[in-house]
Amino acid sequence: MTVMDLLSRAVLHKAELAATDNDKRNNALLCMADALRENTDSILAANELDIAAAEGKISEVMKDRLRLTPERIAAMADAVVEVTRLPDPLGRILQTVTRENGLKIEKVSVPLGVLAMIYESRPNVTSDAAALSIKSGNVCVLRGGKEAINSNKAIAAALRNGLEKAGLSADCVCLVEDTSRDSATALMTARGYVDMLIPRGGAGLIRSCVENAKVPCIETGTGICHIYVDAAADMEKAVSIVKNAKTSRPSVCNAAEVLIISSAAAEDLLPAIKKALVDDRTAEGLVPVELRLDSRAAKIIDGTAAGENDFDTEFLDYIMAVRVVDSLAEAIAHIAAHSTGHSECIITEDSESADKFVSAVDSAAVYVNASTRFTDGGEFGLGCEMGISTQKLHARGPMGLCELTSYKYIIRGNGQIR
């Protein structure tokens, strides 16, 4: 079935889904979650095909993003159920005005219509996106990458089965099985069919969508996330945060890629951070972090000399670029020059420095003394997420249910004319 065939079928059901009440949509989600659990074996078998096909072609870190386990599928189902517990995003009265002539004007939240999503690697995105779309009354057309096609087909089949059991059309969730560039282009240019396009993946995918889309497109930026360790940082806190932000799951967009450290703290802190990220991990049989050091950091600890592009690279691996600066202002200037606007952190016990950092850094999420790994829909209390927007119009940061709605004005009168 072509992309246009799928979109034509999706459009047929957007009014039907938009008219459902919260209870019916929640019941559909519960049936979808049950279907994921019931089809665990077939989803795992499909995932094994993808893992086998990826052997020798992608890194172990990226393979981890692709791999499913019974526990991960259970977590996917739990995430779908969690969305049912969130408030109904539709029909919210955002603003009410009564004019002098008696007109009552209400601004009310409504679905966007047909959401299209182009994404890579992570098959759990299929269920996350479908759950948020259904809860927000949107039909979704999903196009994953070729590396996860078998997993995505199995997951989508289960979700569609759950929708039918709940009395909704299976075509409220459609999967594009053609993973060629042509199918992506078709979604980007499907004016009159796609109400919002959300790319989720690497820099190349996002750039292609932003440059070529003729439909409304959300820019979900790559994550060159920075941590600045201030002169007034607590050493134990700094080591813990940097370790978590870099090593807990380096293949995701909210992992820290760049460490900036104050020269006043560098002599003591850099050896401690190297011990935690390199020496201790090596001793424990874990993958050590490759520290790519600027000239000042290299005088304090051993590592690899930073290359020309290392401060502009989303590594998605056990690699971290390190720079030593003399001031908070210099750190902020570096972030402004190199950040993708995703997530940045300052570690400091100085409230004035923290306030300056928060005010000056223009990213979707700005942290004080906490890991950048919290930039996530679930961690923000939004349920799962469609992606993390790094633009400023319509949505910014983790995109939950409210970001998948628009609004319309409802005007009630009693014969008023102008």
- Total of DSSP H or I helical runs spanning 4+ residues: 14
Helical proportion, percent range? 40-55%
Structural class: alpha/beta
- Whole-Å distance between the termini? 50 Å
Number of separate strands: 16
Placed side by side, the strands forming the largest sheet appear as 10-9-11-8-7-12-13
Profile the largest sheet.
7 strands, parallel
Low-confidence stretches: none
Topology pattern, helix = H, strand = E: HHHHHEEEHEHEHEHEHEHEHEEHEHEEEE
Query: Gyration radius, to the nearest Å?
Result: 23 Å
Query: What would you call the shape?
Result: globular
Q: Report the β-strand fraction as a percent range.
A: 15-25%
The whole-number mean of residue pLDDT values reads 94
Could you give a short description of this structure?
42% of the residues lie in helices and 19% in strands. With 418 residues, it is an alpha/beta fold.
Description:
The chain is an alpha/beta fold and 418 residues long. Helix content is 42%, strand content 19%. It contains 14 helices and 16 strands. The strands form four sheets. Strands 10-9-11-8-7-12-13 form a seven-stranded parallel β-sheet, sandwiched between helices. A four-stranded parallel β-sheet has the order 5-4-3-6, sandwiched between helices. α10 (235-247) links the parallel β7 (225-229) and β8 (256-262). α3 (40-54) packs antiparallel against α7. The longest helix has 21 residues, at 263-283.
Secondary-structure map:
Elements: H1 3-18, H2 22-38, H3 40-54, H4 60-66, H5 70-84, E1 93-98, E2 104-111, E3 114-119, H6 124-135, E4 139-143, H7 149-165, E5 173-175, H8 181-188, E6 196-200, H9 203-212, E7 225-229, H10 235-247, E8 256-262, H11 263-283, E9 290-293, H12 295-298, E10 304-305, E11 319-325, H13 328-338, E12 343-347, H14 351-360, E13 365-368, E14 388-389, E15 397-398, E16 405-412
Parallel strand pairs: 3-4, 3-6, 4-5, 7-8, 7-12, 8-11, 9-10, 9-11, 12-13
Antiparallel strand pairs: 1-2, 2-16, 14-15
Helix pairs in contact: 2-5, 2-7, 3-7, 5-6, 6-7, 10-11
